[in-house]
Design goal:
Blueprint (H helix, E strand, L loop, with lengths): L5 E7 L2 H10 L1 E5 L11 E6 L10 E15 H4 L10 E7 L3 E8 L9 E4 H6 L11 H4 L1 H6 L2
Length: about 150
């Protein structure tokens, strides 16, 4: 884990998607939502909605990305016929780890995808911390080399 490792924060809205992530160790992202690609060493999950109860509204899990492929929705979720031809990134990863404490969404703001770095992710207490422009995060080389 390096400070500059890239972290992609994605949203889990359905219990079914959480169970796939937990048991099968993959997550789907519509290719059209990330036209520049996934490009991350880690994926983190913002839990949204009633299925997640006390952890809803927080980034509670993360995992090391191990693979990436393109697949049609019908191949990933054959029992769901809507948008069957849509192409998705299938992001594969290692075991889900809990972020303790979870990163809170306070003040509440809408979340879709967030790109951040490992050092910001580990230090963050709230979603706004993931966007920090503090000198340490912006000028890493200077801070790494100074004595």
């Amino acid at each position: 884990m390096y400070a500059d490792d890239r972290v992609l924060v994605a949203v889990l809205k359905r219990k079914k998607d959480y169970e796939i992530a937990r048991r099968q160790l993959w997550y789907r992202i519509p290719q059209g939502r990330l036209p520049r690609g996934v490009n991350a060493e880690y994926i983190a999950f913002f839990l949204s909605g009633k299925p997640f109860r006390e952890r809803s509204g927080s980034i509670a899990y993360f995992a090391r990305v191990t693979g990436l492929e393109l697949a049609r929705r019908r191949d990933l979720l054959p029992e769901e016929s809507q948008r069957a031809e849509t192409i998705y990134y299938k992001v594969q990863f290692r075991k889900l780890l809990q972020k303790d404490p979870p990163i809170q969404n306070f003040p509440a703001r809408p979340i879709s995808f967030i790109r951040t770095t490992w050092d910001r992710f580990i230090a963050a207490e709230s979603i706004s911390d993931l966007y920090s422009a503090a000198g340490f995060y912006v000028d890493r080389v200077y801070h790494a080399l100074r004595c």
